[in-house]
Amino acid sequence: MSDPIELRNVTKNFGDFRAVDDVSFTVPAGTVCGFLGPNGAGKTTCIRMMLDILRPTSGSISILGTPRALDVRERIGYLPEEKGLYKKMTATAVIAYFAMLKGIAPAVAKKTARELLERYGLGDFQNHKCEALSKGMGQKVQVLASIAHDPDLVILDEPFGGLDPVNQGVMEEVIRDIRARGKTVLFSTHVMSHAERICERIVVIAAGRIVFDGSVEKARSLLPTIVRVRGTGAEAALAGLAEVTEALPSSDGREGVLELRLREGANPQELLKIAFEQGVALEVFEVVDPNLHEVFVHLVGEKAREAAFR
Question: From CA 111, how far away is CA 106, in angstroms rounded?
Fold first, then answer.
């Protein structure tokens, strides 16, 4: 059985400008995949090609086993980057309307709309017109409209944009609930914290090319673990060890704290053992694993700057 999303050597040109350059990746069924990249990296162009809104210049795309997403549109939920609602319709009516467009019977669509609004904190606003909703509420309504027909594949383009921290948490809950029902989710973002919390897999694109494809754990392994230490004799005992590639003043600015970058596979507990054996009176010993934001900057920093001046 094919994966819900498959891109093979996909390129997209707009005149002389190459927006997407030889992109290949797959998203397995039942996975939450973060499609990450700086602004202008090519995320939205890729998503529009997946959905058959744009056609690739070259390469092939398969969505739910078919080369044309339009042929399986009833099985797809999509939140576009450009958000918008019918302002004079109520929240319930908007969600039910989009469900009916995907083949859901009117009575079922209306019932589902009310259940979704209740579940995700908008029960008191079921009969409010969309023009009376806050920006965050409106965005939640649009997300719920994209999943009311219980699609097998959900594609969300920048779903966290413009949401306050509370509603960002609700959005993460929505995505987790979709995954819990065995569905597949791809969402684009340039905010790493969301991907770090809810993704099993990430695909990173920069300047139109894929620079990483794999698990969050694999991404973190691209950068070294850091051990921060302070104590009399700590530098002499630890800085020259084979496990340590670099010793610098701590990046967090604390006085007297030394930051030791470890070789791949090195065990921080070995440093702690050696410090005790050498009689170092440790005041600070902290193991700091790289986070996804640091990995992202490492992967796309230069390419993001290049893209800004293209």
Answer: 9
Q: Return the biggest CA–CA distance within the chain.
A: 75
Measuring CA to CA, which residue among 48, 63, 65, 36 is closest to residue 12? Answer: 48
Task: Please name which of 60, 193, 177, 7 lies closest in space to residue 185, comparing C-alpha atoms.
Answer: 177
Q: What is the pTM of this model?
A: 0.84
Query: Which DSSP letter does residue 72 get?
Result: G
Distance from C-alpha of 89 to C-alpha of 141, rounded to nearest angstrom: 11
What number of helices (H) and strands (E) belong to the chain? 10, 13
Read off the tokens for 286: 């902290």
Tokens representing 22 are 């030889």
Output the CA–CA distances (angstroms, integers) from residue 87 to 93, 98, 134, 142, 188, in the order listed: 11, 14, 12, 12, 26
Strands (E), the chain: 5-14, 17-27, 32-36, 58-63, 76-79, 153-157, 184-189, 201-206, 209-215, 226-232, 244-249, 258-262, 281-288
pLDDT digits (tens, 9 = 90+) for 254-290: 889 999 999 888 889 999 999 999 999 899 999 988 8
